[in-house]
Amino acid sequence: xxxxxxxxxxxxxxxxxxxxxxxxxxxxxxxxxxxxxxxxxxxxxxxxxxxxxxxxxxxxxxxxxxxxxxxxxxxxxxxxxxxxxxxxxxxxxxxxxxxxxxxxxxxxxxxxxxxxxxxxxxxxxxxxxxxxxxxxxxxxxxxxxxxxxxxxxxxxxxxxxxxxxxxxxxxxxxxxxxxxxxxxxxxxxxxxxxxxxxxxxxxxxxxxxxxxxxxxxxxxxxxxxxxxxxxxxxxxxxxxxxxxxxxxxxxxxxxxxxxxxxxxxxxxxxxxxxxxxxxxxxxxxxxxxxxxxxxxxxxxxxxxxxxxxxxxxxxxxxxxxxxxxxxxxxxxxxxxxxxxxxxxxxxxxxxxxxxxxxxxxxxxxxxxxxxxxxxxxxxxxxxxxxxxxxxxxxxxxxxxxxxxxxxxxxxxxxxxxxxxxxxxxxxxxxxxxxxxxxxxxxxxxxx
Amino acid sequence: xxxxxxxxxxxxxxxxxxxxxxxxxxxxxxxxxxxxxxxxxxxxxxxxxxxxxxxxxxxxxxxxxxxxxxxxxxxxxxxxxxxxxxxxxxxxxxxxxxxxxxxxxxxxxxxxxxxxxxxxxxxxxxxxxxxxxxxxxxxxxxxxxxxxxxxxxxxxx
Lengths: 447, 157
Description:
The structure holds two protein chains of two kinds. Chain A is α+β, with helices and mostly antiparallel strands.
């Protein structure tokens, strides 16, 4: 065949519905739309078999099937002659198709309607372009491919970053500079609370640091739960995935103890890339764009490479911080507390912490701040080690064994963002200092 | 089978249309409809397509005389499929008018739903249009959901 499946990449994005024609054993044709076609390899496609009973029955009786695929960029159409091979209802290929179907049916607002039961695998016999009397504009070709030298340099920057903050910042810089996307978030995995927490962002009016995605919610939760990249490429007909909270939520932070999730109202494409190091979920890189079909196959591959590198670097930074830390921080007396009183209130039930009535953070990061304030008040010191924090809090929150650095990063950034009168400074591997601009008091609320 | 009032009302909305035939060996063909014209008896419908764009569809209709046509309302996915025997008819000025109106309505509807206008023209062409006159023998609800695939038409609520 002169056209190959790999030439039809933009047809497999699930943006414009495909068409499937079958015929019964007695020769009566049947035609319907098809939400998603997956390219399995150069000779096979898989169809989500959530379609209609008649199509399914026809395929069993007569394996000859005709598809029309549509390029989501240009509208160009392709006619495929395919033949049914087999069905799959479990296994990696089925999982891949199920995940893609979930994203693509969500993008047409039908995720509740479409439930994948099984997928059918077909062999592709012929592909031909459907004639068009307008010249299609090759929009895909107008963007340059990802630059490998730039990608390589970005990977070096991620690897050479000094700490978790530097790693996340280098990753976000690479997203902007190498791939040209202006809106991105890095969320870190909090297995203690079963959620993802935003630890870095670019391009949003409100940074969203500390905002959370619960469980397997939306694109980000799905990517984390399945350890697979998941994207939507045309949200023109869809309310954004349900993570967004109203604009007024920023002001309501102190009441809700929930940071508003950042949002790009005009988003047309979104992608969530899991950050996995040696099989462990470290977080998710999330990017959105106002362009349709903003994430091509090679963009996706570059993002997966970057996310994997960043995950590895984060894991290394945890190990190095653990290995390098001294047994105990210098017991240098803290400067005598002078100036105004700073009220720190800790709520036991969710470990949320307020400084002078302003919500800062909750969860592990909140528990760590309480610990440092307690030590500061009891022992008069300002410097703390990762090790002592791990020993003190690890029994209740085993998650911090592998994620202490990112929790401290989140705490540091939230204190900065809220311009709190106490700040956290990293003073070396595995060591931090709490700078306090006044006299601390610690209160506890809740049972 | 007769198209009821509900179906006629549906057919008055901006729609997209897809058409299938099958050759004598059971190999299906597919193409897009660019217009239709319900006949007075309500049991026959002229389905218009571009034979220039879908030559296999034309050949299959000529060979086996069987057609399935699905109409979908892009704004809510409500769909119906009509099936039956079909024969090619002479294309008239009325058919050309039907095609022009259908294509204009579909283009506007898709654009209003956020589909970029520049990607729509490859789907809708009046070049080399032909007409298949379909004697409706089966009507199916094709809207995704619990009723999908069920028989509809005369007598349906």
